[in-house]
Amino acid sequence: MFGLFKKKISAAVEAVSEKIAGGSEKKEAVSEKPQPKEKPTKPVVKKEEPIAKAEEPKAKEAPKAEEPEKKGILAKITGTFTEKTLSDDFLKDVLWDLELALLENNVAQNVSEKIIIDIKESLSGKSVRKKEAQEIISNTLKSNILEVLDLPKIDINAKIREKQGEPLVIALIGFNGAGKTTTSAKLAHYFMKNKHSCVFAAADSFRVAAIEQLEEHALKLGVKIIKHNYGADPAAVIFDACAHAKAKHIDVVIADTAGRVHTDKNLLAELEKIVRVNKPDLKFLVVEAISGNDVVEQARIFDSVGIDGVVLTKWDVDEKGGAALSLCHTLKKPIVFLGTGQGYDDFVEFDAKEVLKSVF
Ligand SMILES: Nc1nc2c(ncn2[C@@H]2O[C@H](COP(=O)(O)OP(=O)(O)O)[C@@H](O)[C@H]2O)c(=O)[nH]1
Ligand SMILES: [Mg+2]
User: Do residues 282 and 168 make contact, with C-beta atoms less than 8 angstroms apart?
Assistant: First the structure.
């Protein structure tokens, strides 16, 4: 998980830490702490302090040219020579590389900005070596990512129990091709493994072959499917599936809805009707992990009907991870499952701490 994210972000942290460590020593890049002034014409020669003077006699040039280098190395080891502190301007420049890496991994701009501000605050006015810089940056990244991702979990199995005999109704919503039908099948497989019975509601009566696609899964999984004809009212299909589930004491109704383009007002109105009529217990937004920054816009539009959680699909295709951060930050709703392939078992419960462990 987060494979690419890990690779790219680790590389950026490494590079940025290197620059920051350099910046802790380079005068031109950072603000200087006031130091006791030395008279330039009369350097005080101490045994342990090397002399770095270009005006020295030529005969002594060779050994003296090496001395400042020695001093630099010694300073790096002891840390005593680092007298410059990191200025905000310098950090802003240097941390841009990290911000870019976050943006390239589809982390929404407001999320990456917050991360960078936090890192800047942790480093500002400090004088650090590479390892410390790396530690500060990694820890700030970790705490920020955890803060964004670690939202209260949805315990679906507990929700089924809470319904006390009534079916739990789950509606999957999202764009065409996001993976709603595949996720319907994976959910059914997941519930059956947990000894819960399911019924499908073929509520995508809009897209060509959508009903047949779900029927195929129903057949393979041995799950009953409630369907109407194409063009039928999807709210009515789900209503019938709920009635069937109640009559047959089925635990879960999984409603596979039509993929809707958020600019299509009719389809959104249809979704609102589904919610008004059937009051699903859980509305899961199904989103591809490969979505770019438009994921935030998608989430906001679909959240007009009230999203309870997210299923992030195609995690196996793209491990950037940024979409996960952006969605959680925008919706403040948890990612419930990750789709990790096309098989029924390629479906894992999302755990923020586990994900984080795999990144750092
Ligand atoms: N690699 C991969 N492919 C997926 C995943 N989920 C769905 N797909 C594929 O994405 C395509 C669209 O999925 P579908 O369920 O029809 O999307 P829908 O239009 O939202 O119902 C299909 O080819 C699926 O096999 C996933 O987690 N990983
Ligand atoms: Mg579909």
Answer: yes
Q: What is the 8-class DSSP label of residue 9? A: H
Q: Which domains does the chain have, with CATH numbers?
A: 3-33+52-149 (no CATH), 156-359 (3.40.50.300)
- Per the prediction, the chain carries an average pLDDT of 83
Return the structure tokens found at 76. Answer: 């790096």
> Using CA atoms, how far apart are residues 238 and 230, in angstroms rounded to an integer?
14
DSSP 28: G
Closest CA to 360 of 8, 11, 6: 6
Ligand 1 contact via 257 beta carbon (within 6 Å): no
Question: Of the spans 57-61, 72-76, 241-245, which averages the highest pLDDT?
Answer: 241-245
**Numbers of helices and strands, H then E, in the chain:** 13, 10
Residues with Cβ within 5 Å of ion ligand 2? 180-181
Q: Outline where 150-233 has alpha helix (H).
A: 156-162, 180-193, 210-221
For the chain, how big is the Rg over CA atoms in Å?
29
Q: How far is CA 317 from the centre of its chain?
A: 15
Angstrom CA distances, 159 to 154, 155, 196, 252, stand at 8, 6, 12, 10
* C-alpha–C-alpha distance, residues 135 and 137, integer Å: 5
Q: What is the pTM assigned to this prediction?
A: 0.80
Nearest CA to ligand 1 atom 9: 179
Regarding the beta carbon of 261 and ligand 1, being less than 6 Å apart is answered: no
Q: For residues 60 and 304, what is the distance between their CA atoms, to the nearest angstrom? A: 78
In the reported structure, the alpha carbon of residue 218 is separated from the centroid of ligand 1 by a whole-number distance in angstroms of 16
Task: Give the residue from 299, 298, 271, 285 showing the smallest Cα distance to 339.
Answer: 285
Residues whose CB is less than 8 angstroms from the CB of residue 82 and which lie 6 or more positions away in sequence, other chains included = 24, 25, 75, 127, 129
- How far apart, in whole angstroms, are the C-alpha atoms of residue 283 and residue 227? 20
